[in-house]
Amino acid sequence: MTAFEALRGILPDSAEVLPSGHLAVGGCDLVDLVQQHGTPLYVYDEATILARARAYRDGLRAAYPGDSLVCYASKAYSARWLLQLLAAEGLGLDVVSGGELHVARSAGFPMERTYFHGNNKGEDELAEAVSAGISRVVIDNLEEVERLNRICGGLDRVQPVLLRLTPGVEPHTHEYIRTGAVDTKFGMAIQTGAAEEAVRRIQAAPNLALVGYHAHIGSQIFDLEPFQESARRVMQFAADMLARQGVKPREISPGGGFGMRYTPADDPRTPGDVVGALAEAVLDAAETLLPGEPLPRMTIEPGRSLVATAGVALYTVGSIKHIHGVRTYVAVDGGMADNIRPATYGAEYSSLLANRAGEAPATTVTIAGKYCESGDILVREAHLPAPRVGDVVALPASGAYNLAMASHYNMALKPAVVAIRDGQARLVRRRDTYDDLLRAEV
Ligand SMILES: Cc1ncc(COP(=O)(O)O)c(C=O)c1O
To answer: What are the residue numbers of the active site?
Structure first.
C-alpha cells in the first residue's frame, strides 16, 4: 500500500496522486503550490469543508424536528475567507474573544447567528459583543452575570444568554482538552448547586434573559455515549429549573468536540452518526422530562471536525541526521511555531512526501521541527519513502488548532495559506515578513 492509500479519510476528500507522483488537492499540484509560495505552507480544500458543514447541518435538520443551528467553533481556525464560506451555508459561529469577534464582524458574519463563549470575557469584549448585536452570550460564572447585566443596562439592552453547565461527565480524551468534569475552569457545576445559583442570579438580572443551557465536555472524543449523557444531564437540569425557578428552556447547546481522524488508528463517527445520537438524547429527554413544552432549539459547535481534514501543512526537508542504532531525524522548515499540538498534548499526525506520494513507505523516521526545543517534534514515528533533502513533507489533518495556535517563537514567520476552490488555488494569507515581527513595537 502507498502512503497515500493508507491516508484515505485523513487527507482532504479531493486528494489524489498525479501521474508525476505529486500529491494534488482539488486538482491543484501541491508541489507547484510550494514552488510558488514556499514552505511552510498551509493548503485548505474548500470542498472538504463544505461537505462536513453540510453533513452536520443537513444531518441535524433530518434528525431533530425542532429548530437547529450548527455553529462553527472559530477557535479551531479563524479567517475571513473561511467564515464567509460557512456563513453562506447558513451556519452559526462560536467566538471566544474580542479578537475572534473582530474577525467575524470584519468577515460580515451575521451577528444573529453568533455566540460568545469564554471563561473570562472582559468588559470591553462584552460591551462590543452586545453593541454588535450578538445573538447569545454564554455565561460562564457569577461575576459575568453581574458584569454583563451592568453593561447591558448601560446600553439599554436585554441580552439573551445561555448558561454554561459543567455536567460532570468524564470523556476519554487528553486532560488538557477535557472540560466536562467538575474540576475544570469552564462553566458552573450542576452537581455542586453552583449552576442553580447562577440561574437565580441571572433571573434576578433585569437586563439578561436566560433562554437555555450549554455544555461542552471536551475535544477529540470518539465515543458517542458521553455526549448523550451530557445532553441528558443538561436536559434534566433544564427540567429542574423549569420546575424550581420557572425558567422555560428555549435552547439547548450540547457543544462540540467530535473526534476526527489524524492517523489510521483513529476511528471517528460520521457527522450523521454524531448528530443522530445527540438529537436522540435531546428528543428522548424532552419527551419524558419536558412534556407539553415546545422542543428547544438545538445548537451544536463542531470546530476541528469541520475544518481539520481540509487542511494540509507542507514543509521542506532541510537536514537528515542518522543517529546510528537510535533514530533518524528529518528536520523540516516549520514545527512547533505553526503546530504546537504534538508538543502540548502529544498529538499524533500522519505524514507523506508530497513530491513522492505514489511511493510505498520504506523507513521509519522522526520528523523534527526547526525550533529550539527538544520537544519540537511533529511526528515521532513517520513511515515514509527514505526522505531526501528537498523533499516536501505533507502533514494532513492540519486544518484545526495549528494556525490558530501558531506563535512567533524563535521569531518564526507565520505561514502563508492557500485555499482551493473549483480547481483554482488562491493565496488567502501571505507569509509574515520580518517587518511584521517588528510592527507592534513602539
Ligand atoms: C465551548 C466550545 N465549543 C466548541 C468547541 C470545539 O471543539 P472541537 O474543535 O473539538 O470540535 C470548543 C473547543 O474547545 C469549546 O470550548
So the answer is: 372
C-alpha cell at 77: 481556525
User: Does ligand 1 come within 6 angstroms of the Cβ of 296?
Assistant: no
CA–CA gap between residue 392 and residue 395 (Å, rounded): 10
What is the residue whose three cell numbers read 522522526? 366
277 lines ligand 1 (CB under 6 A): no
> pLDDT, tens digit, for every residue of 120-134?
999 999 999 999 999
Q: Cell triple for residue 17?
A: 496522486
Coil vs helix vs strand at 44: strand
Model confidence pLDDT, tens digit, residues 249-263: 999 999 999 999 999
Best CA proximity match to 263, nearest among 374, 176, 348: 348
Q: Model pTM?
A: 0.96
Whole-angstrom Cα distance, residue 377 to residue 379?
6
- What is the SS3 assignment for 265-306? CCCCCCHHHHHHHHHHHHHHHHHHHCCCCCCCEEEECCCHHH
Domains, the chain, ranges and CATH? 3-45+308-438 (2.40.37.10), 117-302 (3.20.20.10)
CA distance 265 to 254: 26
- For 150, other C-beta atoms within 10 Å of its C-beta total 15
Does pLDDT of 178 surpass 80? no
Distance 337 CA to ligand 1 centre (A): 22
